[in-house]
From TrEMBL, chain A:
Ranges where the Dehydrogenase E1 component domain occurs: 16-297
Upper taxonomic lineage: Bacteria, Bacillati, Actinomycetota, Actinomycetes, Pseudonocardiales
Name this protein carries in UniProt: Pyruvate dehydrogenase
InterPro entries: DH_E1 (IPR001017), PDH_E1_Alpha_Subunit (IPR050642), THDP-binding (IPR029061)
Gene3D superfamilies per the UniProt record, alphabetical: 3.40.50.970
UniProt KW Oxidoreductase keyword: yes
Top-level taxonomic group: Bacteria
GO MF term set: magnesium ion binding; pyruvate dehydrogenase (acetyl-transferring) activity
Keyword line: Oxidoreductase, Pyruvate, Thiamine pyrophosphate
Necessary cofactors: thiamine diphosphate
TrEMBL record, chain B:
Signal peptide boundaries: none
Presence of keyword Flavoprotein: no
Pfam families cross-referenced by the UniProt entry: Transket_pyr, Transketolase_C
Annotated source species: Actinophytocola xanthii
Listed name of the protein: Alpha-ketoacid dehydrogenase subunit beta
Cofactor: thiamine diphosphate
Transketolase-like pyrimidine-binding domain boundaries: 4-178
């Protein structure tokens, strides 16, 4: 392991590189049929998760999205157990019960990716409020896309967070599209204006640059720890790949060829990589490859869950549901 | 005759409904790009005023459709995933459904809600695999679950023309189904009329949606020992009780396969109603999801949580064992 702090130049690079290569390996596993159901690739947006999570402490909390692998990994989850989750293994973070869109690791403060757009903001707000109330205050960062800012439930979360000065950081990953819908066709007013309307300080940052995201997130986290309540960060970013891997099979036309040709012009991995010595960069790259080779091997060698346990964990009380057949 | 897929049948039904009635319009997420394929070609043919791409604001656009319906339009909402019905449940059940009675009949709310890809999508896990048709039947919102391409066409046409809100579930497992179809014969299928897919004399299997295919397959497998009638209600609310009573009256035995959770699922209602109406020759059986099912991600677990052909065959064998 590279022993650099996650918020150092090397640490940030390691995170964006790890997330990038994790996604590329995962896409291969989608193609080979080892990951069933596909994924929403985070490729292109790595700087957001890396920068925000580097501003958080180990005990802080995050909630992720359907495009959530980056959030889970950047917060410190084990890539091998994450890959095992995506391949539906008993050794996965969620014992194979959650998959790509629900990966969670409470041990490192990941309260879960959430597949319902706009739904997690209020969950993060409640968790951060409760930790303060319980006398063990932390900051919660909640990620969501540009599509989510049009969901009423997220706007309700802004109000609660501002009203009760909750230490929560709302992170909007504005990648320009909600599936096929352009942000300009979907958002009346502005994204930051929504937060400002509730008195939440909001800023816009270059979401391709891990250090820019880190700096902005740090300010917000400091403010939250000082008791000044929520902040809002709009990270302008790009989704390099498909909305979901199904698009690799069924072509949807919503980005022009020109736009697609230039989409990778500002690559967070290269932006951060250029800040390192070539030798250091190569060393990190090599280490990341080792970690991921091990992750894939671990995942594919892990046993699949026993179908008889399909509804284990349904109830925390241990209540066993009636089966669907038989008397 | 050409092969018509279930998805294409829905697409054709929408296009025909829009061509037939100027007040029909479609709204939903990614409907112009036709991410689900069900709305393919509509914006090119009917223009952007009749095919609205909505922001991700399900609660808002569901009631927006109610408002448009109150003053004379016939909106068709496409919900990309079944969970969006949970999100907009209040808007559908507490507003669209109640306005007619609450206003003393001053208005009607002819909105159609279509979910292409309901139920398990194998690998889409807990929040994308629900099949909440029984909830809508319980509340009394008209609910249809077509099993075949021709029925998908016919029921969607009827749903759009119906004066009340109608939810149309298009099960993921049925979407790829194709059928040799006489396109000229495609026609609206009245809501509330069931269909017998296979005649039989020993037992009636009521199968909902994609499970109709399973029921027919099981009936074929068991054909040497038992004669199975397969009844597809097509509409769960209003239900074709008379059609089913006729069938169960003949066979005297009943098995239901239904992709709902067991408690308060439509299978329970079918069994209760037949117990009230028919003197059954043997205790009936149902094959459903388990109580409270949340579909786990891992494919084997996902399958283990849904009704299977093996379970259906076992249930049929059990019910016919007791000869009169
Ligand atoms: C409430 C809700 N509506 C619709 C969907 C289907 N859906 C999944 S992702 C997505 C687009 C989300 O766009 P955005 O928030 O910008 O995130 P991005 O995919 O760009 O990361 C949609 C419409 C959903 N999962 N939840
Ligand atoms: Mg987006």
């Amino acid at each position: 392991m590279t022993a650099s702090a996650v918020d150092s130049a090397v640490g940030l690079y390691r995170t964006v590189r790890l997330v990038r290569r994790f996604e590329e390996r995962a896409i291969e596993l989608v193609r080979s049929g080892d990951i069933v159901g596909g994924i929403h690739p985070y490729v292109g947006q790595e700087a957001v998760a890396a920068g925000v999570c580097a501003a958080l402490g180990a005990g802080d909390l995050v909630t992720g999205t359907h495009r959530g692998h980056g959030h889970v990994l950047a917060k410190g989850a084990d890539p091998a157990r994450m890959m095992a989750e995506l391949t539906g293994r008993e050794s996965g973070l969620n014992k194979g019960r959650g998959g790509s869109m629900h990966a969670a690791d409470f041990g490192v403060g990941v309260l879960g990716a959430n597949a319902i757009v706009g739904a997690a903001g209020a969950i993060a707000t409640g968790a951060a409020w409760a930790r303060r109330r319980l006398g063990t205050p932390v900051v919660a960062a909640t990620f969501f896309g540009d599509g989510a800012v049009n969901e009423g439930m997220l706007l309700e979360a802004f109000n609660l967070a501002a009203l009760w000065r909750v230490p929560v950081l709302f992170v909007c990953e504005n990648n320009g599209y909600a599936t096929t819908m352009r942000v300009d066709d979907a958002v009346a007013g502005s994204i930051t204006g929504r937060a400002e309307a509730f008195g939440i300080p909001a800023s816009t940052v270059d979401g391709q640059d891990p250090e820019a995201v880190l700096a902005a997130a740090r300010e917000a986290v400091d403010r939250a720890r000082a008791g000044a309540g929520p902040s809002f960060l709009e990270c302008r970013t790009r989704r390099f790949d498909a909305h979901h891997t199904f698009e690799h099979v069924v072509r949807l036309r919503y980005r022009t060829d020109e736009e697609l040709a230039g989409i990778r012009a500002r690559d967070p991995v290269d932006i951060q990589g250029a800040r390192l010595d070539a030798a250091v960069r190569a060393e990190v790259d090599e280490e990341v490859e080792r970690v991921l080779a091990n992750a894939v091997e671990f995942a594919l060698a892990s046993p699949l869950p026993d179908p008889l346990t399909a509804l284990d964990h349904l109830y925390a009380s241990g209540l066993r549901p009636r089966p669907g057949s038989g008397v | 005759m050409p092969w018509l897929s279930y998805q294409k049948a829905l697409n054709r039904a929408l296009a025909d409904a829009m061509a037939a009635d100027e007040t029909v319009f479609v709204l939903g997420e990614d409907v112009r790009a036709a991410a689900s394929t069900v709305t393919a070609g509509l914006v090119g043919r009917f223009g952007p005023e009749r095919v609205l791409d909505t922001p991700l604001s399900e609660q808002g656009f569901t009631s927006f459709a109610t408002g448009a319906a109150l003053v004379g339009m016939r909106p068709v909402i496409e919900f990309q995933i079944p969970a969006l019905l949970f999100l907009s449940f209040e808007q559908i059940t507490n507003h669209a459904h109640k306005f007619s009675l609450m206003t003393g009949g001053q208005c009607r709310v002819p909105v159609t809600y279509v979910v292409p890809g309901s139920g398990s999508r194998t690998g889409w896990a807990g929040q994308h695999s629900d099949h909440p048709y029984s909830l809508f039947a319980h509340v009394g919102v008209k609910t249809v679950v077509p099993a075949t391409p021709a029925d998908a066409y016919g029921l969607l046409r009827s749903a759009v023309q119906d004066p009340d809100p109608v939810v149309v579930f298009a099960p993921s497992a049925a979407l790829a189904r194709r059928e040799d179809t006489d396109l000229a014969a495609l026609a609206p299928v009245p809501l509330g009329s069931g269909r017998v897919h296979r005649r039989g004399t020993d037992v009636t299997v009521v199968a909902v949606g994609h499970h109709v295919q399973d029921a027919v397959a099981v009936a074929d497998d068991l054909a040497e020992t038992v004669s199975v009638e397969v009844f597809d209600p097509r509409t769960l609310y209003p239900f074709d009780w008379d059609g089913l009573t006729e069938s169960v009256g003949r066979t005297g035995r009943l098995v239901v396969i239904d992709d709902s959770n067991r408690t308060c699922g439509i299978a329970g209602e079918v069994i209760a109603t037949m117990a009230e109406r028919v003197r059954l020759a043997a205790p009936p059986a149902r094959v459903t999801r388990p109580d409270g099912a949340v579909l786990p991600f891992s494919p084997e677990l996902d399958r283990a949580t849904q009704p299977s052909r093996a379970q259906l065959a076992a249930a049929v064998s059990l019910v016919v064992k007791e000869r009169p």
